[in-house]
Amino acid sequence: MPSADFEAAAAAAKSLSYNPSNDELLALYGLYKQATVGDNTTERPGLFDLQGKAKWDAWEKNKGTSQADAEAKYIELVKSLQAK
Question: Domains in the chain, please, with CATH?
Answer without folding.
Answer: 4-82 (1.20.80.10)
